[in-house]
Design goal:
Helices cover 33% and strands 28% of the residues. The chain has ten helices and 17 strands.
Length: 349
């Protein structure tokens, strides 16, 4: 079978995960790499046996390289828009990390360009490929817990909590990220809600910065934090389904805890990254008699992100893939959450 020649932009820690996923799929070969740091170019270039002339300090050269079939972008938020724009202009298929852009204003001209010349495009909303979430979606689509009335989604991490004394890094820099925990983790919650329940119709929100200053490791000075590290919001989704969301990096002991609880007329289901191979189903067998069952996820729900990317590059659009418009809508909702928090008012979308 044909192998797709990939140009990989951004060679930090998350790039190694993408390399591992590509290797596991067996349909990809990284033939070009790009990063602003020469040390990273050399290290990863040697790791992947990429020729020296295919190690680009300027990602535009990689995108324009005729030997690159598709681009995988794993970079900080402030260059997301520029890389997507360059891929659209070069008509180069791509997979880009979330969030779609730094702020919504950067997303609007990208949509205009995409509508003029659409190309195969995928956003790396990785949790669409958590088997438990995928099976929950199937159960909802088949109506097996009746009409869904409400749900809760949370995404909790603990690495930013006060006892860890995490220094000032790029994830706390508003000029680079646009938002804090909201864009980093909240974008996944937004995507999961759209994946499972449909579109957002109205929301209210509250953003907060728990740790207002962090120490700059270069200068030793304290730096004011201008992005959120806690976000909560409520939403009314398609069909008057009500949702409650919370995310933070300050939840000690949470690890990487992304989970959803879904409440239907005839049952409740719980799915989580902490137990990706099964979900919990609670139903009433008789009045006042509850049954709680742990259900293993069937094999057909164990789809990989790069299997879908392969299918996209081969010309099909797999069910459940996060495409260009999913990234755009996600960024639009992130912007609405920020405005709802600032105005202390519910906003209709």
């Amino acid at each position: 079978m044909r192998k797709f020649r990939i140009g990989l932009i951004g060679l930090g820690g998350m790039a190694q995960e993408h390399i591992r996923w590509m290797n596991a799929e067996g349909r990809f070969e990284v033939v070009a790499v790009s990063d602003v740091y020469e040390e990273a170019l050399v290290k990863v270039g040697e790791q992947l046996a990429v020729a020296p002339e295919k190690r680009y300090s300027d990602y535009n050269g990689l995108i324009e390289d005729p030997d690159v079939d598709a681009v995988v972008s794993v970079t900080p938020n402030n260059v997301h828009a520029d890389i997507i724009r360059a891929c659209l202009q070069a008509r180069k298929p791509f997979m880009a990390e979330k969030p779609f852009t730094r702020v919504f204003e950067e997303a609007v001209p990208l949509l205009e360009l995409y509508e003029q010349q659409p190309i195969p495009a995928m956003l790396a909303f990785t949790y669409r490929y958590t088997p438990a979430f995928r099976y929950a979606r199937e159960i909802l689509r088949e109506g097996r817990i009746g009409a869904v009335r409400s749900f809760s989604i949370q995404y909790l991490q603990g690495w930013g909590a006060a006892p860890n004394n995490v220094p000032y890094i790029w994830r706390f820099n508003k000029e680079i990220t646009g938002t804090g925990t909201l864009g980093d983790l909240g974008s996944h919650m937004i995507d999961m809600a759209r994946f499972l329940f449909g579109e957002f119709e109205e929301l209210s929100a509250q953003l907060h910065t728990i740790i207002p200053e962090r120490q700059d490791p270069a200068s030793g000075n304290k730096v004011k934090i201008e992005v959120d590290d806690f976000a909560s919001f409520q939403a009314r989704m398609t069909g008057d389904t009500m949702g409650v969301f919370q995310t933070t990096r300050n939840a000690i002991g949470s690890g990487n805890q992304h989970e959803v609880s879904i409440y239907g007329d005839t049952g409740t289901i719980h799915a989580s990254t902490q137990h990706p191979e099964h979900l919990v189903w609670i139903r009433e067998e008789a009045p006042g008699q509850l049954a709680k069952t742990v259900i293993e996820v069937p094999k057909h729900c164990k789809v990989t992100q790069y299997a879908d990317f392969t299918a996209l590059l081969e010309g099909s659009v797999p069910d459940g893939i996060a495409g260009f418009m999913d990234g755009y809508r996600n960024q639009q909702i992130l912007d609405t959450i920020v405005r709802a928090s600032e105005t202390k008012a519910a906003i209709r979308l």
